[in-house]
Amino acid sequence: MEKTLSDTYKDILINEVLNNPDKKFNDNTNNLLSALRRDTIDRPVIFVGKGSCGVIAGANGTYDAVKEYISARSINAELLEVGCGGFCAAEPVVEVQLPGRSRIAFQQVMADQVDHFLDQIFNNILDREKAVAQYRNQYHEPWEGIPFLDELPFFAHQKRIVLDQCGLINPERIEDYIAREGYQAFIKTIRNYTAEYLCSLVEESQLRGRGGGGFPAGKKWRSALKTASDKKYVICNADESDPGAFMDRSIMEGNPHRLIEGIAIAAYAIDASKAYIYTKAEYSLALYRLENAIQQAKEFGLLGEDIFESGFNLNIEIRKSAGAFVCGEETALISTIEGRRGMPSPKPPYPSEKGLFGKPTIVNNVETLANVPAIIHNGPQWFNRIGTETSKGTKLFSLTGKVKHTGLIEVEMGTSLQDIIDKIGGGIRNDKEVKAIHLGGPTGSTIPPQHFDTPVCFEALKKVNTLMGSGGMVILDEDSCMVDMAKFFMDFIRKESCGKCIPCREGTLRIHEILENITRRPEHESGHQTLERFKGVMQLEGLAEVIRDTSLCGLGKTAPSPVLSTMKWFRHEYEEHIFDRKCKAGVCKQLRSFYIDVDKCTGCMICAKKCPVNAIIGSEKKPHFIIDEKCIGCGICLDVCKFNAVYVK
Amino acid sequence: MDNPLDRILKQYPNTRRDNLLPLLQDIHDSLGYLSEESIIKVSQHLSLPSSKVYGVATFFDQFHFEPQAHFVIRICSGTSCHLSGSAEIMDEFKKTLNIRPGQTTRDGVFRLEEVPCLGACGLSPIVEVNGESHTGFSVQQIADLVEACKENVA
Ligand SMILES: Cc1cc2nc3c(=O)[nH]c(=O)nc-3n(C[C@H](O)[C@H](O)[C@H](O)COP(=O)(O)O)c2cc1C
């Protein structure tokens, strides 16, 4: 794959496209742009989706197999890697565009199927089982009987602003981005706007932070702009510490230039000449693509000194996080960049007044910044017409859990949670009942079905005691246990508490202990232990409130949310665990009761021999029996039985 | 002069404190762990007390302080993987290898780790062996996997 662009192309892109305010291009330039957008192609193009999810599903093997196919047969075709389109369940996705025809997407193309698959498509035969959808393009003749991408329910109910080019363009080539009007907003900004005016544009757009807090971005920027200082900084928060969320990673992998353009505009707005991107060290592909994108932007003069003769300088440096949830909190993040332990510090002073190295600093989330180029390009009124009264634009979610179609989605603010589950997610897998939605990661909250009509909107969600969070959305069905869920999140928080504030450090540990107690099987439980358990449960709520009210940072303040929200909406499940000692969903292993099916049991005695507490009685060749009071619920009998005679209830 | 440690330190002529983490990360990438020697050298290089360097390093999960095993088995315990049974997989690995997460087997062959999220939630549960992902993993695959690794070492 040719990585370097010939210098003439580069000159055209810089001088004719980027440096051309009226955008009236001559034929030569138009042809180049059209070719870069793949509107007109003279040879087949094959796109392989190589986001992290694709790679994990085997896209590297698929990519190599396609490459070998092409070179072995000396086929004149172009092979490109693209980011994640968001439809994770379909990975590895391969898209093929034949000259004059629509670009068409195929799902689950594994390496060993590539030869057969390409044989077919190059002979104009469609594998209809694998074909998912085709792209709409006025210049291309569509394939018959294949839906367009925007007709698939998964995509039809989304509104893609931030993600519009993810999965479409090659993230490793700046020219693909420029051909789709990339960096135009940045150049327009540094040519025409003052920092003051730029801040007012962003204020007018009513863009709010997507990292969880929902703070107005324009207001934050103005505060940093107004604070006088010789040096200022922009930090892009790409730590994405919520386990189960991958919005930011997908943006960085799928369209890194979009983020860099957003950062550059933000830096101009506060007059900063240095920006940091702070991201997870595990995000190796995102790191590679960002570094590559920064390098290309430098070569095009879009970063560095005196950018496009505007006198504005900017350098972007990438910092890798070393794995700590709390470092996503902005003050802790700043400490980490300074080379200290990642512990939060009290606010005020806010980072926009006194941040990195004591200088005014704005910290913004990836998604927030990736919205900025579109706002500048289309104008603030365009943006604030999208969404609800108080929440403008769109929101990204990583939709996971028990829905049919999991993946990365972007919806207009105001879309109801029910629509996300039913229309985009395609409903619940295996026709199960939905039980709840969990929003906002480990420190987020759970929403019960009676509130699924709530729209995605900062204020509306607050009304049901939920914060929007950064975009983790987990759908739970009847097989999920809410107590186990709360325990899972508390276990995470307990490990991730930085230890600075005692209520958070000790309190989360205690909450986890209490939840462990509820879900543990009473083993020779004396009266004393039972009493302790009840006392603990009674204190659970009080403890949660103390942690919430007395912790310094957002971690402690929201740490008890999973417990408080599940206790509020699913109190009956807690009661069932405490009083009946049962877990209906069958998740809490130790609360399971085991039975032996007398018809199936052959009396082989294996279970009785293996039972660690001698809870199984019975003689040879006769059906056995489990004494419930003695059983500790380890499940060994279930594992060792060769006749499937042991069952759980 | 061939010491990789010195080579890395040389790449950081600027001895400001904010170089501490990138420096530790580079050393960790190259050695696989942070040795006592490396902590001391870094502290001398940045003119920080070694206790401070150690304090920062131990704050973060990413750093190990003992040499790495042949096979690092990382089990994703993110929300989605948890829902698809990662806890059971972890239990089985613990039983099979007789170690807990964060530990290395005595022969230095296996290390077990629990990781918060590998970011492929659509394909859960996920087990990663030396960076190679196994998607839709099930408890039944464990024995074969462990055997294959052992053969690989022998
Ligand atoms: C415990 C904790 C973890 C956080 N993790 C993240 C994160 O992973 N990504 C993020 O953008 N913001 C995170 N935040 C929010 C940041 O502190 C900050 O508000 C945000 O980056 C501001 O950007 P925004 O205004 O664009 O949303 C976290 C906050 C807390 C308290």
Fold topology:
The complex is a heterodimer of chains A (649) and B (154).
Chain A: H1 7-18, H2 27-36, E1 45-49, H3 52-57, H4 59-72, E2 78-82, E3 94-97, E4 104-106, H5 114-122, E5 131-134, H6 153-156, H7 174-179, H8 184-192, H9 195-205, H10 217-226, E6 233-238, H11 247-254, H12 256-270, E7 274-280, H13 284-299, E8 315-321, H14 330-337, E9 361-365, H15 366-378, H16 380-384, E10 394-401, E11 407-412, H17 417-424, E12 434-439, E13 445-447, H18 458-463, E14 472-477, H19 482-496, H20 502-519, H21 527-550, H22 554-558, H23 561-569, H24 571-580, E15 594-596, H25 606-610, E16 616-617, E17 625-626, H26 636-640, E18 646-648
Parallel strand pairs in A: 1-2, 6-7, 6-9, 7-8, 10-14
Antiparallel strand pairs in A: 1-3, 3-4, 4-5, 10-11, 12-13, 12-14, 15-18, 16-17
Helix pairs in contact in A: 8-12, 8-15, 9-10, 11-12, 11-13, 12-15, 19-20, 20-21, 21-23, 23-24
Chain B: H1 4-10, H2 20-31, H3 36-46, H4 50-59, E1 71-76, H5 79-83, H6 86-97, E2 110-115, E3 127-129, E4 132-134, H7 142-153
Parallel strand pairs in B: 1-2
Antiparallel strand pairs in B: 1-3, 3-4
The structure holds flavin mononucleotide (FMN).
Residues 209-213, 215, 237, 239-241, 326, 328-330, 363-365, 368, 470, 553-555 of chain A line the site of flavin mononucleotide.
